[in-house]
Amino acid sequence: MKDKIRRGGGRHQGKTDVISGSSGKNAVGIKQDEDTSYPVKIQGAGVEPFELQVQRFWLVQDAVMTLLLRNEVCPRSNLSLAFAGSTLDPLAELQSLKGLKPGAIIRLVEEPYTACSARLHLARVLDLLRASGPADALREGRSPSLLETLTHTHTTGADSSLPNGKSLKRSLSNTKTESTSQDAAPPEYLLPGSSERPLMALLPPSSQPEAPSYLKDLCLSCWNPPPGHRKLQGDFLYISVVTAEGRRCDVTSSPKGFFLNRSTEEMFDPRPAQSSPLCHCFTDLLCHISPAFKKTFTTIKNRSQLPPVEVMPTPYHTMSWLGPPAASRTHKNPFSRLGVDEEAAKQTPDWNEELQAARDLPQGSLEERLQKDRTLLQVNSAFVRAVMQGAETVVDGFVEPVNGNPEDPAFLWGGLFMSQGAASAMFGGERGRRAAQRLELKGVQAYSALEGLEGLHTLPTAIVDYRGIRLSAQGLAPGLEGSEQDQETTPASRGLLYGVNAGPQESPQRRRLLALLAHAAKSLSLQRHVVVAPNGHQVPLFTPVDSQGLLGADGRFYVLDVFRSFPADANFCPEVATESQTATGEEQNSGLPKSFAHSLCRLRPELVQAFIQHKHCQFTQRVREILDENGGFEECATASDSRATKAVRAACKEVGSVSDIIFEMRLNPNVFSPGVSFPPGESASTNLQERLLKEAAAFIITHQIPGFVEHCLQNYEAPMDGASLKQALHQRGINLRYLGHVIQAISRSEHKERLRHIMRLVVGEVFIRSTRRVFNSFLQGVDVPSLCAAVSHFLCCLLVPHFTPTPVGDETKKKSRRRGRGAGASDSMPWSTLTGSELWNLVCQDAVETYIISDSLGSGPNHLVQHYGLQKLSLLREFCLKTGVQLRLRDYFLDNQSKAPIGPDDVLNIIPVVKHIHMPTVDAMKAFGAAQNSVQKGLLDQAHEQLKEAAFLFGRVCDDLHPEACYCHSLLARVAFLQGKAAEARSAQLKAVVISERVLGFDHPNTIQQYTLLGVFMYAGGETTLAQKCLLRARLLILTVHGEDHPFTATLDSCLGLVLTGDQTGQFLKNALRLNTSFFGPTDLHTALSQHLLAQWMCSKGDYRSAMTHEKEALTAFTTLFGEDHQQTGCSKEFLCTITKQAVQVERSLRQAGADSTEQTVECLTTTTETILEQMVLMTGIRKVTQSDRFQEYKQKHLELKAAALRELGIKLPNQPFALETLKGGESSSDQETGCGMEAKDGGSPAVENHSLSKTVEEVSLESSDAVSANGHVVEPAEQTQDGGETENREDGDRAALDAVVKVVNGESEVRAAGEESETNVQDEVKSSTANKVMESEAACHEMKSDGELNGAGDVTVSPSVLKSKGTWADVVSKPKIANGTGNKETAVNGVADKVSANGVAEE
Q1: Which of 353, 809, 1270, 1378 is the most buried (most CB within 10 A)?
Q2: Which pLDDT does position 340 carry in this prediction?
């Protein structure tokens, strides 16, 4: 095993396997790369010849962009490529060039500059000279990547200069030897039970050296801009340079390049200096005039290049709530006076045209789709950056409003239209205005994400919160089609084609727009309906009443004002609150329905889909009940009468289907909307829609919230902070206004104590969200010079109990005099009189009004700390992330009441917080989804190929800097690890950590999980020291983000207890056992594993008596979980026997005074590295095993039902032998189905060889709950598809033969009862379909609870982590005695278990 792992080289070598490469787009072992890449030789333009790997599908401009990133070329620009004596067209494809083959020579050609490209070249030079590092990322408010700093190994100067990784192997071997001899103990603040939370350790100083000073000054010359006669001779710019030696020079920028002129500060002489060369690249000229610059510039060119994923800019700004420790003293920008930054801001792009042009790109081939996705992402990220800059410029007062309305000022800046929106009393004032802006963004996201609707466009949209003000930003809409001269023509030719105010009209354009809107309504489950317009006309609509459909001057159809696209939430509608006097008892207990702070409470799209699925379950159940009442299911399905048709019609009517012959669920977005009236003829449809919306609202209370609580109860990787809690709730369609109801549900639960971490998060989220609203209004009364002081004062009032502001004394007056403001400038500021108790009352009042909670927040911050275990540091982090406040990096002591813990100098910045549209990465996501399905089936080889393909596609679209790319690389790492490819797993996981830090945040919960997995893979490669660093880093982050009292801390502590070798091992293992017991009870699987780990550690210490106690507890738990005959129970019994024998030997040898023999017996039970690794793999969920046979028994019963129904109908079951073997059960059929005999001949899979698993009986599956909790993709539990290929073909055959009645169309299930067609056929379909779907539909609608009977497979939205796992400890002692799988259905030969082989090959 070690040979295979070591083959990948050292740390950097493994890293460059996956995250380096010429273009930053390569992935490890990608088949596409091998097939399409080849080397060419690059020469010319004054650079040393070098080789470049190019892709056949690249355009010439792609090759140029790749070249510009190379150290050999940088910072040259304005280059073109020439081949065979002719310059290449930038838009030509490389594969279309004749004669271009591997090894061909391509020349770089220096092109003449234009005024614009000369400025771009200077900007490129400045980017290189600034050499941004982690400190610069913090200064700009961006989340840095700390992996390089964390894993940096110190080598000698000679070693570090070696190429090709020799020093890396040397440093790797050094870390291995150090890990055993000089194992440093973890710091005190990381030990279990410590209450110290140092922030300085979160962001350690970078291992990268500080950028040297190249020049004293670089700015535009005082003679700039060139006078007219010099412009006509080609002078673009005059630049003044002061070198490090103190020499002052003036440089001219011209079309051919840069040269020294003869100007001085006193005299203008633009003629070239006598000894000046003409250089195409600016740095070449600087090297010529300054030896010091040449020396330092050569150093920076030869420095080790970081992987592209660490240095390329992220598509969107990921905020860091902590800034550098001394930002005010180190902030120096000697190049800012060159003016190239300001020049870019003067250009005003047409954002709408850029976005729509990207959407209109062709998508016939994979290459075209990738190019389209990449262009869309680039345009949207540039738009979001412009929105951030525009918000700062507008709110800071640098832009005058374009309208005269002080209540609703509108601004034009940088091609953006920015406004706050009108505060309508109908929608609820300021709260309603903010809700409308947020819902407009959600509506635009919904319409823009629809597939197959290329003809319907939305404007580029984002919302941004800055300094307490929310601005909505949109690209400028195109003018309406038609001109002023066409006033006499029809309204259709003037653009407004659809809407309440469009009026009656008829035109081909209108018909096409209505077809597009009808398609969108079907995809969004919106019902076509009729409303009464203000002029009394009846208008049919597919959208909310506010929406308008336009034909723009660019010939495109636009839909605007979609903020009420989703149906209303009847729980918070005033109309329902006044009508409903006969609410059910549960609703009355919950205080619903009630009025809300604004009238724009809408259901989430996730809830709409879940509700439709729920109604379909009711529908199928009702069809069966009606058929049973009318003579029995079988008789009705086979008899030639209309009973089946009538049953379908009756069920449609009962469940509220909008059609009476098929199940089709649609909701009306205008029901319960204020100001909307319906014609009397629509009363029946309106009443039905009101009923459906009330049921959907009740569905949140009765199903979704209890389901969320149950999910948290079972999940080992529950939410850790506000962001992950919000994501988990939104996945189930639960709006955050239901946080109070979540608190009530947890309080009523009998497992309230086990849910304390969720209660802590929910209460903290209520507190911070209410605080943010108070903070937004607080900032409106603060003038700009006092912002830092006001924000620090607010935070002190919030977090320090009974904080009272000190009167402005002499010290403050002295400070204000020094700063140039008059003494006592803040004496009369209203914000300075705010006290802690006043602020607390305001926050509590908002929480009670918004979340229907009474006394959950208590009387002050200490109540939250004592009653719920909340950390003030975690609250501070959440507040900063939600408001954009950035604090200085230092340790804050928030319990100090004598002195303000946060001062004005600690507030570094307020950063705009942007919410924006998420652009799709369609092909990459399809490949990733296919890989997840393969993983769930256990087909690891297939999943590995699909994951590599997905990683390659993510690299092509977004350079891997995307959350989904992070989850993809993490899953790739786990699959590769299970296949025995430890080096590849380590490389992919390194990349996943860097992406997570930069795209999600250095302290995001997903980053914590990625560091944990990286620690496991590091340990698998023998890098124990680095594994310890990664695991300790993860523990530091979870302590800061949440605190120690969380289930995932138990997982971390178990791994740390296995990896560490000092006296702290026992502390971590005991803490893991304590946490697992308190969260999951004594009979949970993780608790049993913790008991075993503690027993194992005590054996290594020679404390056999305590080890026996803990192993007995583990044996009791295993017996309760799996039964007496389960293999896991047998392993535990065996280990307990071994401990007992050793204890007897120790007692005997002690009585004989044989100390040496005692040491030998202790040594015999010291665990091996392979065993420790396997235990870490099981604890972290990388590998799991089946818990029991119950799910298999359920599947067999289900197959028996299906076979019986088919026999009744006289239909032959496809693949009958397989079905009969499955029904019979037995080991032989299992072996044959998995190809077990072949596995035995081949000697087992690599995973079995490498990880000593040949004796471990298990079903391989992957727990991807981090992806589930972070990216919103729900993967079905492994056990649902664990029969892999064995049932796949059979079920395909069933579907083909049965032509089942239930069909899925656009996310809705239809049941067709074709009235005049063959009724017998319909009855057969209903019968066979229902027989086929009885159990499945119940599972889909969450009626089958994961109560142990179904092994956690009941709830389709449950994360795979709910599925229990088991581990075998056969290798703990040196003599394992497990038989190779006889007599147990779950046992198998060579690690092949229950229809899934260990390397994922399942026979189809």
Answers
A1: 1270
A2: 61
- pLDDT (average), residues 1290-1319: 37
Helix axes 1005-1020, 982-995, angle to 10 degrees: 160
**Per-residue tokens: 1328:** 């066979």
1076 within 8 A of 1049, measured Cβ to Cβ: no
The two beta strands, 322-323 and 885-888, are parallel
Helical segments of 1274-1357, H only: 1285-1298, 1319-1340
DSSP state of 710: H
1142, two tokens: 């050793």
SS3 of residue 1378 by DSSP: coil
Q: What angle do CA 885, 887, 892 make, to 5 degrees?
A: 130
Q: Give the pLDDT score at 667.
A: 95
Burial class (CB in 10 A: 0-12, 13-18, 19+), 233: exposed
Q: Using CA atoms, how far apart are residues 539 and 179, in angstroms rounded to an integer?
A: 76
DSSP H helices, 701-786, are 705-714, 722-731, 739-748, 756-779
Question: For residue 174, what are the CA distances in angstroms to 59, 1017, 1026?
Answer: 45, 18, 12
Distance CA 774, CA 180 (A): 54
> 3-class secondary structure for 801-858?
CCCCCCCCCHHHHHHHHHCCCCCCCCCCCHHHHCCHHHHHHHHHHHHHHHHCCCCCCC
| Interval 1257-1304: pLDDT, tens | 333 344 433 333 333 333 333 333 333 344 344 444 443 333 333 333
The Cα 439–Cα 424 span in angstroms is 15
Q: Are 538 and 679 in contact (CB under 8 A)?
A: yes
Mapping DSSP to helix (H, G, I), strand (E, B) and coil, where does residue 674 land? coil
d(CA 1370, CA 1174): 11
1166: how many CB neighbours lie within 10 A of its CB? 12
Question: Which of the 8 DSSP states describes residue 94?
Answer: G
Cβ-based burial of 1342 (10 A; exposed 0-12, middle 13-18, buried ≥19): buried
Name the percent of the chain in helix, strand, coil, to the closest 5: 55, 10, 40
DSSP 189-244: GGSTT-----SGGGSPPPSSPPPPP-EEEEEE-TTPSPPHHHHTTT--EEEEEEET
Asked if 1218 and 1290 touch (Cβ cutoff 8 Å), the reply is: yes
Cβ atoms of 486 and 494 within 8 Å: the answer is yes
The Cα 1000–Cα 453 span in angstroms is: 30
Q: Are 447 and 547 in contact (CB under 8 A)?
A: no
What are the tokens at 204?
A: 């350690």
- Do 563 and 443 contact (CB within 8 A), yes or no? yes
The token duo for 524 is 């969004």
Tokens (6 digits) for 1173: 């690794």
Q: What are the structure tokens assigned to 1124, written together?
A: 């007496």
Which distant-in-sequence residues (6+ apart) come within 8 Å of 675 by Cβ? 426, 545
Dihedral pair phi/psi, residue 795, rounded to 5°? -65, -40
Q: Name 1147's Cβ contacts closer than 8 Å, sequence gap at least 6.
A: none
Distance of alpha carbon 1116 from the chain centroid: 39
Q: Which amino acid is at 420?
A: Q
Say how many Å lie between the first and final Cα of the chain, rounded.
Answer: 31
Residue 1301 main-chain phi, psi, to 5 deg: -75, -25
Q: Where are the beta strands (DSSP E) in 1129-1224?
A: none
Contact 445, 459 (CB under 8 A): no
**Could you report the per-residue pLDDT of 144-201, keeping only the tens digit for each?**
888 888 876 543 333 333 233 333 333 333 333 333 334 578 999 999 999 889 999 8
Residue corresponding to tokens 């690794």? 1173
What is the C-alpha separation between 1244 and 1106, in angstroms, rounded?
38
464-474 residue pLDDT tens: 999 999 999 99
Placement of tokens 């700063």 in the chain: 819
